[in-house]
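Task: fold both queries, return tokens.
Query 1:
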Amino acid sequence: MKDVNCGYCMRDEHLDAFGIFICELKVSSLILFREQSHPGRCIVAYKDHVSEIVDISAEERAAFMEDVNRAAKAIHAAFHPDKVNYGAYGDTGCHLHVHLVPKYRDGFEWGGVFQMNPGLKKLTDSEYEEMISRIRENL
């Protein structure tokens, strides 16, 4: 099931406003977050428009978490963060997804909770493509 107003579902201008589609995983999509104050920040969005992790079967939940794990491994291999923070929100965009936020000891917001969208760092198209390439190489 899809929601025509949801960027994760439609991959249209709603998604383009905050992310760039990287690839399909087993039961989800991997998306590069446009705001890159945390180099390598991505989102793993479940394939269907469901709000809660309790709304999917145990098998689908396990596959979704395997997708999150696969993406986190790729981020670790590509960018070598000191820690990846995981955030599952959705108060306004009720589509099951997890933010993977690489944190670096000498970087932005180390030691604190990450901001949802600090709006501090956008990249050029070629810089986004280079990041996406590094992630894909490590999936």
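Query 1 returned. Query 2:
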Amino acid sequence: MTSVDRDVVALLDDALHTKLLGYLQARGWKLHRAANADELADLIEQQDFHAGLLQLQRVGNFKLFDLVGRQQSLQWIALMDHSFWNPTPQHRNFLAGVYDFHTLPVDQERLAISLGHAWGKGQLLRQPPAQPDSLEHHGIVGSSPAMQAFSQALRKASKVDAPVLIGGESGTGKELAAHAIHNMSARSRHAFVAVNCGALPTHLIQSELFGHEKGAFTGAYQRKIGRMEAAQGGTLFLDEIADLPLDLQANLLRVLQDKVIERLGSSQPIHLNIRVIAATHIKLREAVAKGHFREDLYYRLNVINLQAPPLRERQGDVELLAQALLGQFAGDNGGKVKGFSRQALRAMNQYAWPGNVRELINRIRQGVIMAEHPYLTPEDLGMERRAADAGRPTLDDARARAESEAIRAALRRCQHNVSEAARELGVSRATLYRLLERYALSGRLNGKATPERSPSPATLAAVDKPTHPTQPTSLPDAH
């Protein structure tokens, strides 16, 4: 980085300018000194600066305060004498908008470090504005080739009214992508209705999707408008579509073909004008081959196929996302956190992010809340150990993740009946119980499993010994 690249505007008196000039120049900074507010205004008008030094005297210049607050991308460091330890209300408002401040006499080494952080933040804020076709205002952040291709595909999908199937790992932002398609489409003035197919109780799915009339079944005390009808004119987003039971898949196929539904307890047809976007982290082609998903429904949904890229394939996007998220969560700690340490950025860039963007959001929000210092460290993000091992998943991690996901899917398809799930997976019931304990999935059976007698630990040990004693080290997927 050249000295020209690190220009700094400075309002300093002769003595302080002389003291700082040589030290900062030796470290690659070029000071552009102004003697008063008018000269400072001229310098800012003539050239773009990312950082500035401002020496504050006992008597405040409120014209200067107004000038300093105009440019968000110009980060100011205030140099103050001790009179500012008891600032006036006007001074206090001004200081709230300053990036950092130092009392005189200046600690030059600390000032140089602070100046570097301020300049870096100013440079980030000075990035060119989003282009008209950018998706940043839809929440899609990223400049990697993978994200550029994905964003272009989203724009193309928004221009037509065909069904869309969005694939990708958990936490990659599939619902956000569906929102972006809807918001850019001709249906944007109407509702976007999201349904998590994996979270709906099996006995209520039809009522939730199609609605019901009063008295249609026990507990139906009044008419209910279903999710499909609520999306009239807009977009219906079916998340985790692979979790939809086979009989409901047939009903959905019929709706997509005929665009007509009937509420439960009614014979009155309701004509729909909706667009359907579906998403899943499961490979539907494989589910079709195994008989777990209807082939005709797959082709009906898969008119436009999009794949949300995992975060590990989005080179250079981690830091962009992290900075954007930090801006969202900064208020959780009273604005105390200002950025990331170099070690934290290195750890984030080296990590494989098995939980993708959802995991990144979780770590940064937790770090902001718990941080004790202005710049987040790997420890704040819970990544100190991961930073040491370069963050790449091991073969055991991948195997554990695949096993856990297969078990979750089988339980959902078998309505949490352990015996049926074990038969489907080709393992003994004892083996499945052991795997449920290993991956902390036994809690999913509470109140859901078909009554079965659980084998004792001794029986499990005798029937089936663990083949992979190592516990999975990757974080479980969020669903």
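Both queries returned. Flag for query 2: The chain has four domains: 4-125, 160-307, 311-388, 396-463.
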